[in-house]
Write a structure and sequence with these properties.
This protein is an alpha+beta fold and 613 residues long. It contains 24 helices and 21 strands. The strands form 6 sheets. Strands 1-8-3-6 form a 4-stranded antiparallel sheet. The chain has a 4-stranded antiparallel sheet with strand order 2-7-4-5, with no helix packed on it. Strands 9-10-11-12 form a 4-stranded mixed sheet.
């Protein structure tokens, strides 16, 4: 096998085009080593090369203090090593010794580096075993701000595509952001190759006719890890970065992550996406709590950690669906939309959160077909339980007929619940379905969510749903009893957090807001008689403080080998946290009392009028 052919089978070089592979093969050198020969000691001297095993095996040591012991791993044919030190230019290992007679390819780092700077290279690094080692030695980037190294290239929408290409070449960039009335579009090298060179598009064509959507943008201050995962999830070439006012601040591309793609979070996420079997998925999913702990330890705010956790859970669920449906070729994966409900639907999932779900089938799915789908969804549920995710004990899962309907059936049910919310647990179903977020299939919202946008035209239902939302009271007196020694435990979710979630959900429903996260719902619906700005701001602060405390305690439980739970044990709650919880519950209870009084003495048509600040 030629050097070029060998490299074409070795990730991440397998992502290079044929010409680049030929150049890489030509620059590489074959090295023959006898058993026991030292290949490199990158703890002493950073290597400027990478090595590919053609035949034989090489033993690798990852810890400079343990090189006298057994090797950490063996690398066989098509195995790659040495890239950690090459990329970081630091003496971080490994030490490599031929475990038997071996033939290697030595590839100059200058020739190999571009392969690691591509999207495929970032994926390889994120999933690689040595990831954590060189992530710890690499510069400690924490936000996308640190990764922006050039001024963004902006072009007007009517700029001819040939001129866009010229400006990109002049600026030495692989993208141009197209300014639009609302947001930005993107012209990338890949778009130019496909549309202009491949399809023969007229070079005078305006950029707005060639561009592709920019996709979600990162904000200044966002975690670099979050931006990386967004790039990987979308297979994107560019991630635009804006300030809080939507002005373009720059962009990050795969090569910007070349020395920071391998934090635990990116590595775990990529392992989940690439899991080839159910067993692989479950093993990777059980590493997620450690990922959360690492993110917190590196300073990422708890709210962002929780949101990122929800994104990772989405990946687990999507991959479970893919793996299960691969065994059911008679079931069309495009015939349904999988909806994440509850805390994960709101992007607020913590380790104790249940996996709530529903499915909206296309209207041509027959009852018999729906039954076969639900049988497969039961297998998905079992896979998720095996991955360490919590099962919903109340049956809010897609395997249940109540939560697996066609779009037409959902629309009919939603209209019935809106007009008669006391029937068929309508209020409860509404509270579940309006938290729904599609994570597989058609990204459109379920029909039932559209139906409930009409809530304001049904004052009786509006009042009843408010009563249901306020029924779960913040247990102020109970928490005082707990901390005076009259009880042993306190359910943080049921007696403190859930009341805030319920208020926010009702407030969003009342104004027809599509927002899902509790904080966004409170902020978006603030300023009315029912929910003044001051009350909403207090509830936002309470929710964020309690979620932070909740996450921290659950990760401690996991570290201790315990099942995470929302029930706090008195002897584990510090005096400061006791004070925080007591004050938070007092504020929530006060908000509930206020809303109850308004509901009793003010007509519904006045609830949403502008209120005090």
């Amino acid at each position: 096998m030629s050097r070029t052919s060998l490299l074409a089978r070795t990730p991440p070089f397998d992502g290079l085009d044929p010409e680049a592979l030929r150049d890489l093969g030509a620059s590489s050198v074959e090295v023959r080593l006898a058993k026991g020969s030292l290949v490199l000691d990158a703890f002493r001297d950073p290597t400027v090369d990478v090595f590919v095993v053609r035949s034989g095996r090489v033993a690798l040591w990852s810890d400079t203090d343990a090189t006298d012991g057994p090797p950490d791993e063996f690398v066989g044919p098509l195995g790659l090593f040495g890239f950690s030190a090459m990329l970081t230019e630091r003496a971080i290992g490994p030490r490599a010794v031929a475990a038997e007679d071996a033939v290697l390819l030595r590839v100059p780092g200058s020739a190999a580096a571009p392969a690691f700077e591509s999207a495929a290279g970032v994926r390889f690094l994120a999933a690689s075993g040595p990831a954590r080692r060189y992530a710890q030695a690499a510069p400690g980037y924490s936000t996308v701000d640190d990764l922006i190294v050039t001024t963004p290239l902006l072009v007007p929408a009517d700029t001819p595509v040939a001129e866009v290409a010229r400006r990109m070449t002049s600026a030495g960039t692989t993208y141009a952001a197209v300014t639009l009335e609302s947001g930005y579009g993107l012209v990338t090298d890949a778009v130019l190759r496909r549309r202009v060179l491949g399809e023969g598009l007229d070079p005078r064509t305006p950029a707005e006719q060639v561009m592709v959507p920019s996709g979600p943008t990162a904000l200044l201050g966002d975690s670099a890890v979050e931006a990386l995962i967004s790039l990987l999830e979308r297979d994107a070439d560019v991630q635009l970065v804006t300030d809080r006012d939507g002005r373009l601040a720059g962009a990050v591309v795969p090569r910007d992550f070349a020395i920071l793609p391998s934090s635990a979070s990116a590595s775990v996420h990529e392992q989940l996406r690439r899991a080839a079997t159910v067993a692989d998925l479950q093993v990777a999913a059980r590493r997620v709590p450690a990922m959360l702990t690492e993110l917190l330890a590196h300073g990422l705010a708890s709210g962002r950690v929780i949101a990122l956790h929800s994104s990772v859970l989405d990946t687990v669920v999507r991959r479970a669906i893919d793996l299960v449906l691969a065994d059911h070729p008679d079931l069309d994966p495009d015939a349904f939309t999988w909806l994440s409900l509850g805390s994960n639907g709101r992007r607020e999932a913590v380790p104790s959160s249940d996996v709530d779900s529903a499915v909206a089938f296309t209207d041509d799915v027959t009852p018999d077909q729906a039954l076969r789908y639900r049988e497969a969804f039961a297998v998905v549920d079992a896979v998720l339980v095996g991955a360490g995710l919590s099962r919903d004990t109340h049956g809010a899962t897609a395997q249940q007929a109540l939560f697996a309907r066609t779009n037409a059936q959902w629309r009919e049910a939603g209209q019935h619940w809106l007009s008669a919310p006391v029937d068929d647990n309508g209020a409860m179903m509404a509270s579940l379905l309006v938290d729904a977020r599609p994570i597989h299939g058609d990204p459109g919202l379920p029909e039932v969510a559209r139906v409930f946008a009409e809530l304001r035209t049904h004052p009786g239902t509006m009042r009843l749903l408010l009563q249901e939302s306020l029924a779960g009271r913040a247990r102020r007196h109970f928490v005082v009893d707990v901390f005076r020694g009259r009880a042993d435990t306190f359910d943080l979710k049921a007696h403190a957090l859930q009341p805030v979630v319920n208020i926010a959900r009702w407030a969003a429903l009342s104004i027809g807001s599509p927002a899902l996260p509790t904080v966004d719902r409170l902020r978006g619906s603030a300023g009315s008689t029912m929910l003044p700005e001051s009350v909403a701001s207090t509830l936002v602060e309470v929710f964020e403080v309690l979620q932070r405390l909740r996450l921290r305690y659950q990760l401690r439980q996991i570290d201790a080998g315990e099942t995470p739970t929302d029930v706090l044990e008195l002897d584990r709650v510090s005096p400061i946290d006791r004070s925080v919880i007591t004050e938070a519950v007092r504020e929530v209870a006060a908000a509930q009392r206020r809303m109850t009084n308004i509901a009793a003495y003010v007509e519904p048509d006045a609830w949403l009028r502008p209120g005090p600040g």
